[in-house]
Amino acid sequence: MNELFGFSTLDLSRFQFATTSIFHYFFVPFTVGFALIIAVLQTLAYRSHDPKLENLTRFFGHLFFINFAVGVVTGIVQEFQFGMNWQGFSNFVGNIFGVPLALEVLMAFFLESTFLGLWWFGKDRLPAWASLASIWIVALGTTVSAFWIILANAWMQHPVGYALRNGRAVMTDAWAIVTNPKALEWFAHLWSGGLTVAAFFVLAVSAYHLRRKHNVPAFRVSFKVALLTALIGSLGVVAAGHVQGQSAVRDQPMKYAAFSALWDTPTGSQMPESLVALPSNGARANRFEVTVPYVGSFLAFNNFSGKAKGLNDLQREYAARYGPGNYLPWVWPVYWAFRVMVGLGGLMLLVSAYYTWRWRRGRLDDPGRLYPLLLVMPLAPHLANFSGWVATEMGRQPWIVQGLLRTADAVSGLTPQTVLVSLAAFWVVYLTLIGLDVFLLTRTARAGMHGPEVETPSVPAPHYLPEGAAP
Amino acid sequence: MTVDLPTVWFALTALTFTIYFFLDGFDFGVGILQPFLARSEVQRRALIGTVGPFWAANEVWVILAASVIFAAFPLWYGALLTALYPLFALILLALIGRGVAFEYRSEVDHVRWRLFWDATSFVTNLLPAFLWGVIMSNMVRGLPLGVGGRFEGHVLGAFDLFTVLGGLATLSLFVLHGATYLLLRLHRGSTLYLRARRAALLWGAAATVLVLAFVYVGFVRSGVFNSLGLSQWLFPAAAALNLGLVWLALTLRRDGLAFAATGLTVVFSTATIFLSLYPNVLPSTLGETYTLTVRNSASEPYTLRLLSWVSLIFLPLIIGYQAWNYYVFRQRVQERDQAIPGGGSGD
Fold this sequence. Notes:
heterodimer; A: mainly alpha; two-stranded antiparallel ribbon; 8 strands; globular; disordered C terminus; B: mainly alpha; 72% helix; 1% strand; oxidoreductase (chain B)
C-alpha cells in the first residue's frame, strides 16, 4: 500500500477518525448532562417564580449555548466520515449501521436544534411553560441521540440480529439490535459519564462564585443540583463500568485481556489483577508487573476463582478460527488508558462524596481546602471519557466489526496525501475551536450574572419587535 | 417506472436534499449578501437576526440526507463520499466555520473579533453554496468508478465546464433565494429592505443566465439529462419560467410570491438533478457494469421497511415543529440601535 512518511491511508484514516470522534466527544456528553441540569434549574425557577433562579438558568444556558454550537458542527463531520474514509465499512454494514444513525437524526437532532433555538431566542415570546417544555425536550433529545449512537457502536463491538448475504451484513432482527445487551450497558455508562462532565463544570463555576460571594443564594442552588448530578453520575459510571468489564470477558475476551495486560491464562486457582505493568507487544509479555491476587477474579466474575483467557492463548484461538494473522491489539495504550479512566472515575466519586458530606454538615458555601481541586475537576470527566474511548476502540483492533470485518478491509481507497491534507485541516480547525470554546466558556463563566435582571440573550441579538412597535 | 421500496427511498432522498437546499439555501444567501447589504453594525446584526433562530435546524436536513443515503443506499453513500472526498471535506470545514461564526460573533464586543467572524461567515457560506452545485453536477455527469464503487479518477477531475457552471448556478440561485427571503424578514421600507430588493433583481438576472447556461451545457453533453424521457424539458423549463416569475413578482412588489418563486426554482432544479439520475444513483464513466443503480445499491427490504415506518411517524412531526418555529419568529426584524448585550460581561 502507498505510504507517506511511513503512514498508510489506513493509519491516517484511523487517526482522522479518532480525531473527529474525540473532538466531537468533548462537546457531546457535556450537552447531555448540561441540558438536564439546566432543565432542573429552570423547573425550580418556574415553580418558585424566583427571578434569581431565572437569572441563574439564563446564565448557565448561555454557557450551554456556547458549547452546543461546536457540538452541532463537529457532529456533521462525524456523520459524513463513515462514507468518506471508510467505504469498505459503509458497503459492508450500511444496511444495519446506517439505520440507528438515521433514527438519531430523525428523533434527536431536529428536536435539539429546533427547540434549543425556541428556548434561547423565544424567551420573550413563548409562555413560561412552553419555554420550560422546550429545554426538557432538548434534554430528552440529547439522551435519545446518545442512545442511538451507542447502539450503533455497540453493534460494531457485539454484532447481533444480522445475517451475512453476498459478503454483506444485513439486518434480520431489529429488536435484537435495539436490545443488544452491550448497548444498554454502554448507554448507562456513557450517559452517567455525560452527567459527570456537566456536573463538575457547574460545580466549579458555582464554587468560584460562592467563594467570591457573588449571588450566593442562586449559586448555592446550582451547586446542590450539580453535586447531586455528580454523585449520581459517578456512581452510575462505576457500577455500569463494572458490569461492562464482566461482559467483555465473555464477548470481547481479547479486549478484556488487554485491559488487564493479561498475556497468559492464569495457572493457579484464581486470577490476580495487574496494578502496574509495562506491557510489550514485541515480547508478548509484561516487562514489569505488580499484581494483586484474587482481585482479577472478583472484577471479572464476582467470585474468587474465575479466570479469563490470556492474550497469547486468544491469539492462537483466533488464528485457528479466522486464519493466520495478528489479532492482538496494541496493549500498552489500551492498558494505561483503561487505568486512567478507572482512576479518574474513582476520583470523581470521592470528590462528589466529600462535598455531599460537607453539605450534610452545613458547609456548602465554603468550598474548603479542596477548592483548587474543584476548579480543575471539570477536566477529569473529559480525560476519563477520552481514555475510555481509546481503551475500548483500540482494544477491539484489528476488528472494526468484531469477528466480521477488519479495519484494514474497511478503509477507502484514497491516497495518503488526500487524507493527510484533510487531517491537517481538521486539526487546525478543531484546535481553534477548542481554544475558542475554552476562552469563551471561562470568560462567560467568570463574568457571572449581572444584577437581578434576567440575562439578555447574547447571541445574534434578534430584535423581534412586533411590526410597528415603537423602537 | 415501477414503484418499489428502493424507488420510494430514492424519492425520499431527493425530497430530503430538496428541503435542505430550500432551507439552507437562503441561509447561505443571507451570509453571502451580508457584506454587500450591511454597512453598519446594526444592519449586520439585523441580517444575522433574520436567520439566527433557524440556521441550526435547517442544517440538520443535510445530516438527514447523508444518513438516509447511508441507511438506504450504502454503496451510493460510500462511493459518492469517497470519490468527491476533497469537496466534502471542504464543505464540512465550511459548515463548521459557518455555525461557529453565527454563534460566536456577538460573544465578544470588539471590532476585530467581529470582523474576523464576518469574513469567516462570508467565505464559509460561499463555499458550500458553490460546492453543492459541483457535487450535484458530478453526480449527474457520473464519476470514474471501478469494481465495488472504487474511485479510479483524479482529485481535480471533479471540475469541468459542466460542473463549474453547476456550482455557479447553485451559488447564484442561493444568493437570489437569500435576497427574496430577506424581503420577507426585513422591515419594509428600511434601507436594508431596499438593498435586498436591488440584490434580488441583480442576482435574479445572474441566476437566469447561469441556470440556462448550465441546462444548455447539460443537454449538449450527451447522456447527462437524457434519462428524463418524455418530461425531459419539463423541469428545466419550469426552473427557467420560475426565474421569470421572480422578476415579475419583484416588479409587482409581491414579496411572498418572489420568495415562493425562488424557492420553487430550487425545488425544480433539485428535482431535475434527481430525475435525470433515475434509475441510476451514480453513473460510472468507466462502463455501464460499474454504474450504481437504485436497485443494486439499495439496502435489503427489511431495512427499508423499518426506515419507512419510522419516517412515516417522524417526518411529519419534524416538519410540524419546524413550521411552528418559523411561526413563533414570524415578525420582521427591525434595524434598531441597541447596545450589544455582549456575552454576560458586556465589556
